[in-house]
Design goal:
By secondary structure, this protein is of the alpha+beta class. The protein has helices at residues 3-16, 22-40, 45-59; strands at residues 89-91, 97-99, 103-106, 137-141, 148-153. The strands form two sheets. A three-stranded mixed sheet has the order 3-4-5, with no helix packed on it. Helix 1 (3-16) runs antiparallel to helix 2 (22-40). Pfam families: Tad3 (PF25185).
């Protein structure tokens, strides 16, 4: 067994925390299967990072190559103003394009995150555009959701 699989087993066990959580057990099994396949492929440091980078983008429904904003990228079953390659991108009536995944909101100090309605709250997208894999800005609200307590740029959840 590889060091990666051993590491994954130890870390995934910590998610259970000694509890008999059937859902977490199933998720752990699924993740372990993916780790085992990755480990069998025998990636070195460089190919592993490259593979993980592309796989992360694909699993998060992000495009691998930059979006162009060209007309053939637009129009889905939901909206003709939605990007086909990255459905969190919307073109507004004034032509401005926004990424609704670029902001994450929380009203419980980061325990849970949500999207807030209204595309006018999001920064304008410039093309070519490569969507990030995590929100670029996190907004912490008071528990009633009425007051912004702090804004954090960048980082990961």
């Amino acid at each position: 067994m590889s060091n990666l699989v051993d590491h994954a087993k130890r870390e995934l066990e910590l998610l259970l925390g000694g509890k008999d959580d059937e859902m977490q057990k199933k998720v752990n099994e699924d993740i372990l299967q993916l780790v085992e396949v990755f480990a069998k492929q025998g990636h070195s440091g460089m190919s592993a990072e490259y593979t993980i980078s592309i796989l992360t983008r694909l699993l998060k429904f992000r495009p691998i190559k930059p979006l162009t904003g060209e007309p053939d990228e637009w129009g889905t079953e939901v909206s003709e103003n939605q990007n086909k390659r990255y459905t969190a991108l919307f073109k507004q009536s004034d032509g401005m394009v926004v990424d609704v995944n670029s902001l994450a909101w929380t009203d419980d100090d980061g325990k849970t995150w949500f999207r807030r309605g209204g595309t006018n709250k999001f920064p304008k997208v410039e093309f070519p555009y490569t969507p990030p894999t995590h929100p670029t800005r996190r907004i912490y609200l008071s528990s009633d959701g009425k007051k912004i307590l702090r804004i954090v740029d960048g980082g990961t959840r």
